[in-house]
Structure formats: structure tokens, C-alpha cells
Design brief:
Residues 1-96 form the CRM domain. This is RNA-binding protein. With 96 residues, the protein is of the alpha+beta class. It has helices at residues 4-14, 30-43, 58-69, and strands at residues 21-23, 45-50, 72-77, 80-84. The protein has a single domain, classed as Translation Initiation Factor IF3. Helix content is 39%, strand content 21%. The chain has a four-stranded mixed sheet with strand order 1-2-4-3, sandwiched between helices.
Amino acid sequence: MLTGKQKRFLRAKAHHLSPIFQVGKDGVNDNMVKQIGEALEKRELIKISVLQNCMEDKDIVAEQIVEQTNAFLVQVIGSTIVIYKESEENKQIKLP
């Protein structure tokens, strides 16, 4: 689990990032989860945008992604999801 201090730190880091994935009307699928997992290994902290035509609630989408990638949910703000997963080979972010 992430502490409040760690989440604040990650939110500040994520502020400047652009969403690199978009969840549309098809929702979350296996291929997307695989790509998100690979992106997390490279970047550790990513933003995902939930489009308006997505049939599922953004909180449910966030829960599915976090569960299937074993990542941590940093925040859901508006239609943007911020998730973090510590990289095994490419550690860049040092949590407080």
C-alpha cells in the first residue's frame, strides 16, 4: 500500500505527464492490460484517460487496470487515472 505522503509525491510527479492510454467504448481488454504493464515497467508512473464513450464508470475501469497489472492507484481525477508500479529493472522514482 502507498502512504498518503507517497501518493502526494506521486501526484506531484504525475501532474506534468500526459495520458498515454485511452479507454474507449470497448473498456479494458487483455491487450491493453499487457501494454499498460509494459509501460509501467518502463515509466513506473502513467496516466490513463477514460473517454466519454466508455460504457463503464471510471472508478471501475481504474479498479480493473490496477487489479490486472498489480499496480497502485494514485488517483482518479476527472476522467484521468494515475497509476504507479515499481519497476523491477528500471527504477527511476524513489518514494519518500
